[in-house]
Amino acid sequence: MAAYGAMLYRYPHDEYLAAPGATPSSETDWPPAAAAAGAQAAEAQGFSSQTIVPRNQDVGLAELPATVSAVKNPSEKIVYDEYNHERYQPGDPSKRAFAYFVLSGGRFIYASLLRLLVLKFVLSMSASKDVLALASLEVDLSSIEPGTTVTVKWRGKPVFIRRRTEEDINLANSVDVGSLRDPQQDAERVKNPEWLIVIGVCTHLGCIPLPNAGDFGGWFCPCHGSHYDISGRIRKGPAPYNLEVPTYTFLEENKLLIG
């Protein structure tokens, strides 16, 4: 045990493990012979100087992961990965050409689809041929006798066409406009004094008045008793307005286009 109490030599520049009461300060405090004797005594007791390692020496632990090492050893220095991991380097001509091809093709497809959608929307708003045909009506006036009324159908509504006589025209112009419920001059309701064209729907509740009837020689609505004169103006009854005048044009002397 006396030999075991001798100092055990460790590695240079490290501390020594000494027996109780020994206070060596450095490696040179012990003679080489004493150090060798201590090592032999330790080996005789089952110890080896090779198993004693410095306290500040790495004992061979596995290297810590980078994330764990960053947590255990924080640093203000940030290292960024600036390596380009793409297959092609930036600015590679082959890569640029392919990108241009894809973008150009996509834009062409999108433009074609947008054009089709716009055309479809515009065409859906335009009227069909059947609707355009019903929008206007051409009427031959040559067969209408003076003093008579003809009814035609336009846009699902009846239209009264009356060929007025000189007496009818004078009667229409002799009315005091200020006394009318819906004041209108006869000249404002006709383009040709001989012809009166009005929509045959009562302005009260939409009934169809009877021609050549009523107290004023024009039209009479049997539903609620509205009376219209020879110019289609309301003269008596609950109707609030005159008979409506549609849009019309004289194509020829005896040709009328309604609508």
Automatic annotation (TrEMBL):
Residues 189-257 form the Rieske domain. Pfam families: Rieske, UCR_TM. Its EC number is 7.1.1.8. One of its GO terms (cellular component) is mitochondrial inner membrane. It is a single-pass membrane protein. It is an enzyme of class 7 (translocase). One of its GO terms (molecular function) is 2 iron, 2 sulfur cluster binding. The lineage of its organism: Eukaryota, Viridiplantae, Streptophyta, Embryophyta, Tracheophyta. Its cofactor is [2Fe-2S] cluster. It catalyses: a quinol + 2 Fe(III)-[cytochrome c](out) = a quinone + 2 Fe(II)-[cytochrome c](out) + 2 H(+)(out). It comes from the Eukaryota. Belongs to the Rieske iron-sulfur protein family. The chain crosses the membrane at residues 97-118. It comes from Oryza brachyantha. This is Cytochrome b-c1 complex subunit Rieske, mitochondrial. The Rieske protein is a high potential 2Fe-2S protein.
